[in-house]
């Protein structure tokens, strides 16, 4: 088996993975209490799929009792350095580095399937089940067990030489491979940069993330209206968030060496102007399709409101007047209410009698009340 393991690791590296290793599958008894409390606390939020079949996550052998090992793989992506620009002045959004380019699920899965095919060829009839974020598998847990890295304080899997800018994939199999006896040592030490610099306080000591405070959750996973209290805290992040990775000392070298990338900071007005076809053409093959057009435009409207730059008002006015999605209009109304400017107030006043959606109507009323409280002489 050792020879096969070495051959598979060599093949994985050839395919483009930068880390590969094996873990012995077992019931995660020590996590059972943690996970049931996590679910009971409502931390899965709208990610209902996380609460489904918890017994499978806690023991892969519930998926298939014949499974014995996991080959865990890491796929690197370049963390582009954001252009040095004043996003408020230039009205630019910010996208998480992992989402640039083609959707990683497809790309990484294709490469992992090639490794799985070699595994299956070595013993005809072998079971190989490939996961890239596509099933009830705690990928970081098994990657840590396979010694790809340690479970960092920012809750990402970290490696001393590769930081955390990589995706994980796993091949669950009935083949038995030797697995490391010792875990990768924790190298976070006393560093708390991610905890201290997360803008929403989503990370707490104890290596724990509260998804309901995480920008990544609100901008990618949440489908409906973003809670009003959360909106100002999103800054210009319109898909995901990389702050707790950017500030991590284990990522510093990678971040500095990466090229400047314009696609990371798209102009917000152009996003608000995207119709269905335009969205499909620009983001149909990328991870951004997960939010759908309405989610991305919702996020872009929030970022416009957070900019404090009155140059955002014309695009927000057009959105409030002509956007077919009520969700997007509602967030555009909120964004207009953030400006202390007659043009913003006028846009809200003109939209109010025309608006037929109750939720948007409520946002307009609140936004106008806010505007009037700033200009009491006009009330
Ligand atoms: C749901 C999800 C999210 C949610 C919730 C995240 C969360 N912490 O649960 C949201 C939307 C917020 C999110 C955000 C991001 N995600 Co995400 N996400 C997932 C997903 C699909 C499931 C994670 C999960 O099961 N959560 C449930 C909770 C209970 O799990 P947990 O908190 O990890 O709990 C475990 C640990 O706490 C563990 N535990 C407790 N104590 C200890 C101690 C030790 C020593 C160990 C080993 C474990 C451990 O016990 C639990 C079981 O393992 C995984 C893919 C997968 N299938 O694993 C990707 C995944 C974790 N995400 C990933 C990425 C890239 C991101 C983002 C960086 C994207 C971005 N730029 O916006 C951010 C990072 C935010 C952050 N700081 O974690 C990568 C991480 C790669 C890496 N290097 O670690 C993954 C693995 C996807 C992939 N296939 O590559 N994500
Ligand atoms: S992704 Fe952003 S919001 Fe989420 S924990 Fe990391 S720094 Fe905080």
Give an overview in words.
- The chain is an alpha+beta fold and 379 residues long.
- Among the domains are: 152 residues, no CATH class; 113 residues, Leucine-rich Repeat Variant.
- Helix content is 44%, strand content 10%.
- The strands form 4 sheets. Strands 1-2-7-4 form a 4-stranded antiparallel beta sheet, sandwiched between helices. It has a two-stranded parallel ribbon with strand order 3-10.
- A hairpin with a 5-residue loop joins β5 and β6.
- α15 packs antiparallel against α16 and α16 runs parallel beside α18.
- The mean pLDDT is 93.
- It binds cobalamin and iron/sulfur cluster (SF4).
- The site of iron/sulfur cluster (SF4) has 11 residues, from α9 and α10.
Write a short abstract of this structure.
The protein is of the alpha+beta class. It contains 18 helices and 10 strands.
**Straight-line N-to-C gap:** 79 Å
Spatial strand order of the main sheet: 1-2-7-4
Fraction of residues in helix: 40-55%
The helix tally amounts to: 18
Bound ligands, named by name, code or SMILES = cobalamin, iron/sulfur cluster
User: N-to-C SSE series?
Assistant: HEHHHEHEHEHEEEHEEHEHHHHHHHHH
Query: Which stretches are poorly predicted, pLDDT < 50 over at least 5 residues?
Result: none
Radius of gyration: 23 Å
- The computed structural class is alpha+beta
């Amino acid at each position: 088996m050792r020879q096969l393991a070495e051959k598979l690791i060599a093949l994985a590296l050839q395919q483009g993975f930068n880390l590969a290793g094996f873990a012995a599958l077992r019931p995660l008894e020590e996590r059972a209490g943690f996970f049931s409390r996590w679910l009971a606390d409502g931390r899965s939020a709208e990610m209902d799929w996380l609460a489904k079949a918890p017994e499978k996550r806690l023991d892969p052998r519930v998926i298939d009792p014949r499974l014995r090992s996991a080959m865990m793989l890491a796929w690197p992506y370049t963390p582009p350095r954001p252009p040095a620009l004043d996003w408020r002045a230039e009205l630019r959004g910010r996208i998480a580095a992992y989402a640039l380019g083609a959707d990683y699920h497809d790309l990484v899965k294709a490469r992992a399937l090639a490794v799985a095919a070699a595994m299956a060829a070595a013993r005809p009839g072998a079971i190989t089940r490939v996961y890239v974020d596509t099933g009830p598998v705690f990928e970081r847990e098994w990657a840590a067990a396979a010694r790809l890295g340690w479970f960092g304080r920012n809750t990402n899997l970290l490696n001393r030489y590769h930081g955390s800018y990589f995706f994980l994939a796993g091949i669950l199999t009935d083949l038995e491979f030797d697995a490391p006896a010792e875990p990768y040592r924790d190298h976070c030490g006393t560093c708390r940069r991610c905890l201290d610099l997360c803008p929403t306080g989503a990370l707490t000591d104890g290596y724990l993330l509260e998804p309901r405070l995480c920008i990544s959750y609100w901008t990618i996973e949440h489908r409906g209206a973003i809670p009003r209290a959360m909106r100002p805290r999103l800054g210009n992040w319109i898909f995901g968030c990389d702050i707790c990775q950017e500030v991590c000392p284990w990522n510093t070298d990678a971040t500095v060496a990466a090229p400047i990338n314009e696609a990371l900071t798209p102009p917000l007005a152009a996003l608000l102007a995207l119709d269905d076809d335009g969205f499909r053409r620009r983001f149909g093959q990328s991870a951004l399709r997960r939010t759908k057009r309405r989610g991305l435009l919702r996020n872009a409207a929030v970022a416009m409101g957070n900019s404090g730059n009155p140059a955002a008002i014309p695009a927000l006015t057009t959105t409030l007047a002509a956007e077919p999605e009520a969700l997007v209009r509602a967030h555009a109304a909120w964004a207009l209410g953030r400006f202390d400017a007659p043009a913003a107030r006028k846009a809200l006043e003109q939209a109010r009698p025309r608006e037929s959606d109750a939720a948007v109507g409520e946002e307009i009323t609140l936004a106008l009340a806010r505007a009037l409280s700033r200009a009491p002489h006009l009330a």
